[in-house]
């Protein structure tokens, strides 16, 4: 176990033993993001498609007078698309891309709560037995019978950003 | 209200003065007999010295004093203006800048050397003189004038500043304001005048000319005029205070704060006549405050369009009336705001004269720089970002483009090389051109270099334009020798990167032996533009109105025609069109009557086929997120009245994309 703890990405925990996170559902999996990076939780907003953009950030929304991209994390994890429900929300986060803070919205199926996760319950993503790219996940935290996924947004967004030239064109 | 730091204000002012001095010197260098330029340089030096002393830049004041002395002698005709003198003062000017920037630095040695240069330049032309100020020349009268106006003079519509100006017109004149009567702030009435003036005047005019100046206020004022025998020393103390007096529009609190750029208080403003306006009403504002204001205006415009939409949908006439008022006001506010952000390219071009002057020295070439279209106005932020690339282009022209005088003579060209720097506005873009009459770009050498560095395949089939664009590749240089100036291959890629970032284009034309011309076309990206709102499929898009030429319905027969030929004939000329529905892959059914919006991009006209033209829309440009920087079709986004986002089409890139698609279709048959 000790060895496993050491492997947990330090850029997320930064030496802390506890982490305040916001938990939410996407396509049946529970995710969590550090609460301080969350700017706001919004009801679904009218989206504007951006022709020619990658599917991952295929549309933009009006966030308080700012035009920000709406990201679909499901595409990064290869998950099934889900229909918007009454519980669907957009989480607006600030992430650092290329040294600049960038606001982006993330489509979620349901937002749960702000909670505290313990580092002791965390595990690095397994290198086998997972259909997701391991570098897209900072760590998995066990809570009860299920795992909460802490995605590495920086890696996810940067991957989309860097591979923009080769990225799949959006129809 | 906060007052700017007086030192910072002085620095800004000093920078401007130094620029003026430099411009004057460079003009003088071209025409050594130009009396006006001598005067201009002298005035600049004089003001710099005065305000420098006032703000505690003593080293600057002392140093500038010597240059001023030298120019004063030129001005009086004691010493002729020589190129050596101009060069010496130009160098001294750089030293002054250093003294302004780091007043406490160790500048003494440099200063001494420069002064020695200066003395040599002056003495070389004439024997050394001693006096700073010449005595009154024969036929000149030296008057000492003291005058004060009644305290309520300004309330009665008298403005003392034009009087001072008129005195200045009579001859050389030193004006000192007597501020001793200004009461403390709580007792000060802003409309009252507490200042009186002492003026020393050297003029060829008789005494009656002075009386004429005051003819309209004579009855109420006190005026003492005494004639003095020429006594140069008497005038010296007045010198350092003169600039302070000149910027005293009235006894108002700002003036007490001794900020040279103090604007007249509102009460005084009303009294300032038109003649005075241009000088005294300039207010310096930090750029970020302007940007903040721009943001607010942007939000206001969005809120206003929502209001119009609400008002339009309701039958309430009063609401509509208010909404229309707000619409008009916010439109005017926006227009005013845009003008505030625009600055003429003069500022930008001005600095190249010095650059070319220095380059001519370094390379031993004779170079004449001609500038055109300096009044063309461009958004301030664009100007700032253009400076760097232009420096590289001008350097390149001077160093690589122009030949040495011997080579030019041999080629049968005039010895002096010409560089033309011009700016003009064209359909929502500003075109900046750098043209030289040098040797031109050697296509074979570019090709050989590109092949050897693996940029292009050997014998690749390239158009001239494609070949020229290679010079903007990083590390690309055909220069055989690396000089101090250029040839290292950095520079041109900086140009390319900056222009790309501004979403502009670079166009190169060149003729071997005749010269090259590089044009930069940069969109006038302002924070707010007028746009045409259109619908394509379910999406709404904004086309910049400045690019729109006309709108028409797509004739059904043209619409039905095969895709291989997408042209409409418009008054006997063929205009290709793009179906935005296809380009955007909307996947919806087209509206029965398709519309064509004809836009022009530089030389080309292109029609954009849309489903519906919704109308004119004032658009606040919001930048696209970094995550969307790969999407070149859109230059930005905007928020519509109902809160939805509409994307703004980047006309130039869209046409390029459309042309590719056309080419594909043609290739596919």
From TrEMBL, chain A:
| Transmembrane parts of this sequence | none
Name any Gene Ontology BP term.
signal transduction
Q: Which SMART domains match?
A: CheW (SM00260)
- Identify one Gene Ontology CC term for this UniProt entry: cytosol
Q: Which InterPro entries match?
A: CheW, CheW-like_dom_sf, CheW-lke_dom
Q: Which Pfam families match?
A: CheW (PF01584)
Residue span, CheW-like domain: 18-162
The protein, known as: CheW protein
Q: Which organism is it from?
A: Neorhizobium galegae bv. officinalis
């Amino acid at each position: 176990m000790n060895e496993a703890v050491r492997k947990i990405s330090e850029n997320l925990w930064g030496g802390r033993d506890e982490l305040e996170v916001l938990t939410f559902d996407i396509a049946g999996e529970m995710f969590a993001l550090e609460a301080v990076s969350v700017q706001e939780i919004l009801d679904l907003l009218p989206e504007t498609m951006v022709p020619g953009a990658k599917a991952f950030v295929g549309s933009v929304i009006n966030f308080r007078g700012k035009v920000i991209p709406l990201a679909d994390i499901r595409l990064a994890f290869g998950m099934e698309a889900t229909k918007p429900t009454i519980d669907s929300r957009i989480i607006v986060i600030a992430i650092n891309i290329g040294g600049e803070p960038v606001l982006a919205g993330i489509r979620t199926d349901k937002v749960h709560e702000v909670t505290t996760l313990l580092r002791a319950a965390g595990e690095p993503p397994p290198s086998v037995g997972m259909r997701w790219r391991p570098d897209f996940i900072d760590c998995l935290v066990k809570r009860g019978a299920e795992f909460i996924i802490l995605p590495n947004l920086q890696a996810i967004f940067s991957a989309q950003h860097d591979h923009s030239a080769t990225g799949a064109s959006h129809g | 209200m906060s007052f700017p730091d007086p030192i910072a204000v002085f620095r800004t002012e000093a920078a401007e003065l130094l620029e003026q001095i430099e411009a004057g010197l460079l003009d003088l260098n071209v025409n050594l007999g130009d009396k006006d330029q001598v005067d201009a340089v002298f005035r600049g030096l004089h003001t710099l010295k005065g305000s420098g002393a006032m703000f505690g830049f003593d080293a600057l004041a002392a140093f500038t004093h010597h240059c001023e002395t030298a120019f004063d002698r030129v001005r009086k005709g004691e010493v002729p203006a020589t190129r050596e003198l101009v060069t010496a003062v130009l160098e001294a000017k750089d030293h002054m800048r250093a003294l302004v920037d780091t007043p406490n630095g160790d500048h003494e040695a440099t200063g001494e050397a420069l002064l020695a240069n200066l003395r040599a330049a002056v003495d070389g032309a004439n024997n050394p003189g001693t006096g700073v100020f010449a005595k009154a020349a024969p036929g000149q009268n030296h008057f000492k004038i003291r005058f004060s106006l009644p305290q309520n003079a300004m309330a009665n519509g008298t403005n003392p500043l034009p009087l001072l100006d008129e005195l200045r017109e009579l001859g050389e004149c030193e004006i000192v304001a007597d501020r001793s009567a200004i009461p403390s702030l709580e007792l000060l009435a802003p409309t009252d005048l507490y200042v009186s003036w002492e003026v020393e005047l050297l003029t060829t005019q008789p005494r009656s000319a002075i009386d004429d100046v005051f003819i309209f206020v004579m009855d109420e004022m006190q005026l003492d005029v005494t004639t003095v025998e020429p006594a140069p020393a008497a005038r010296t103390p007045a010198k350092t205070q003169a600039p302070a007096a000149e910027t005293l529009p009235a006894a108002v609190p700002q003036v007490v704060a001794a900020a040279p750029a103090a604007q007249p208080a509102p009460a005084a403003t009303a009294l300032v006549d038109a003649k005075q306006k241009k000088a005294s009403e300039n207010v310096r504002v930090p750029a970020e405050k302007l940007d903040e204001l721009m943001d607010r205006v942007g939000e206001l415009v969005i809120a206003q369009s929502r209001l119009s939409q609400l008002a339009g949908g309701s039958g309430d006439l009063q609401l509509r009336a208010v909404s229309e008022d707000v619409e008009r006001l916010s439109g005017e506010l926006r227009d005013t705001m845009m003008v505030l952000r625009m600055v003429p390219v003069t500022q930008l071009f001005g600095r190249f004269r010095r650059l070319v002057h220095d380059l001519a020295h370094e390379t031993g070439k004779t170079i004449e720089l001609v500038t055109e279209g300096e009044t063309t106005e461009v958004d301030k932020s664009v100007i700032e970002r253009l400076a760097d690339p232009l420096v590289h282009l001008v350097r390149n022209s001077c160093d690589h483009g122009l030949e040495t005088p011997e080579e030019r003579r041999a080629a049968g060209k005039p010895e002096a090389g010409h560089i033309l720097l011009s700016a003009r506005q064209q359909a929502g873009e500003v075109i900046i051109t750098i043209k030289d009459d040098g040797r031109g770009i050697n296509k074979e050498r570019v090709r050989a270099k590109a092949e050897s560095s693996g940029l292009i395949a050997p014998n690749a089939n390239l158009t001239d334009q494609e070949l020229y664009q290679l010079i903007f590749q990083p590390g690309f240089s055909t220069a055989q020798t690396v000089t101090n100036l250029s040839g290292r291959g950095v520079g041109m890629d900086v140009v390319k990167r900056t222009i790309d970032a501004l979403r502009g284009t670079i166009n190169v034309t060149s003729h071997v032996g005749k010269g090259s011309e590089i044009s930069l076309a940069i969109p006038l990206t302002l924070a707010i533009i007028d746009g045409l709102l259109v619908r394509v499929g379910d999406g709404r898009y904004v086309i910049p109105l400045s690019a729109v030429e006309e709108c028409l319905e797509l004739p059904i027969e043209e619409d039905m025609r095969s895709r291989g030929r997408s042209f409409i004939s418009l008054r006997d000329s063929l205009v290709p069109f793009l179906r935005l529905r296809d380009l955007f892959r909307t996947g919806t059914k087209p509206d029965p009557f398709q519309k064509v919006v004809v836009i022009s991009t530089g030389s080309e006209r292109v029609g954009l086929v849309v489903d519906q033209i919704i109308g004119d829309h004032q658009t606040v440009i919001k930048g696209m997120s970094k995550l969307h920087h790969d999407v070149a079709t859109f230059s930005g986004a905007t928020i519509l009245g109902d809160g939805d986002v509409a994307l703004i089409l980047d006309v130039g890139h869209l046409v390029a994309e459309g042309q590719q698609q056309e080419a594909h279709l043609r290739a596919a048959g």
